[in-house]
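job 3f2a | input accepted
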Amino acid sequence: MSSVTTTDAATPRAVPSSHYSFFDLVKSEWTKIRTVRSTMWTIGVTILLGVGIGALVTAVTRAHWASLAPGNHIGFDPTQTSLIGLFIAQFSVGVLGVMIISAEYSTGTIRATFSAAPKRSKVFAAKVFVFGLLAFAVAEFTSFVAFFLGQFLLSSPATHATLSSPGALRAVFGGGLYVCVLGLIALAMGTIIRHTAGAVSAFVGVLLILPIVVQALPNQISLDVRRFLPDRIGANMITTKGALFQAFSPWVGLMILCLYALGLLIIGNSMLESRDA
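job 3f2a | predicted structure (277 res):
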């Protein structure tokens, strides 16, 4: 009887597959993100660039307001001016999105993650969920702080805005959403490419190089294509003076950007499951 007991006790128990719930994976991913020093640095840089550059531009505009031509006074968009720093902050959010997964590949910890939680799509969904919430919070915080500080600096007689001004709340909130979605696109690129430098280069290329290439196309083709590019969608999102020439309306443009992110995330998830870790 005792030998049977000894044998049973010595027999190792198999670890159940997919033992962790989605909530467990979310907690795990949040622990990974918040305990990495580079995350805090990147968030700090995002806020500093988004708020600081907007403050600098609005302060310079206020200082030279009297010397501006009357036509510039009429067409001036105070909301867009204060949010201009988002176009620099988007790059640091993109770098963070890439590193969320590429860093695990570079260190090899992704193998331990998939060994503990074999359902890769579930792990990937947890990464997207945690990073998406973090990017949203950081981007919206940056956007609103940049707006309030910028409008404070645009003191009279310069034109300034409040959240109740036509289109201002949409521009400020939408600007944060724009940066958040770009972060998810960067995360998807990092999943597909699996190399930090390569994914960051691809992300920067889409935002900076691709518009230059499209600009070199024949005029009508360039106008038709540019309306689909992220930089044009973002510029249209933060303006309150009406849609840019041959551009989608702000929310339609943001929906297109979300479709880009969704498509790339689906491709990334598919490649994550089919390739070796």
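job 3f2a | The two ends are 46 Å apart (CA to CA).
job 3f2a | closed
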